[in-house]
Amino acid sequence: MTPPHDIISDLPAEQHIRDGLLDLQGGKTSIASCLVRIASPRLLKAGILKEPIALMDQNDELTLYQLLASHGDRAYSIYNSLLRELSSFERALDQRLFQIAATSSKVMASQGKRPHTES
């Protein structure tokens, strides 16, 4: 199986996600850590996060926007750009997970084994 962090290699927003994971580990609130919080359901599903992230006092998207406020008039366009990039990341991650599952099923079938299905 592919190590969880290798699953995100070459995906859109890869560096934001890697930085955000480090920031969360260090207890730091940053633009990248907000993106990880927003994407946490998909990151949990992929095995990149091992446990759910504790809830913040406020909405992660609002926190992200507040962190971007220093960019003045550009804050809104940067915010939208980051969320579009994150959306692309999530779609690409889903596709990669599907490809890994399909490959794993083919390998197991060639070995005469049945794929494990969750109940």
Can you walk through the features of this model?
- This protein is 61% helix and 0% strand.
- The chain is built from five helices and no strands.
- α1 crosses α2 and α2 packs antiparallel against α4.
Record keyword descriptors for this entry.
single chain, mainly alpha, 5 helices, elongated, about 120 residues
Number of strands: 0
Largest sheet: none
SS element count, helices = 5
Share in helix? 55-70%
**Broad structural category:** mainly alpha
Mean pLDDT equals 88
In short:
It is built from 5 helices and no strands. With 119 residues, it is mainly alpha-helical.
What's the topology here?
Elements: H1 14-25, H2 31-38, H3 40-46, H4 60-68, H5 75-110
Helix pairs in contact: 1-2, 2-4
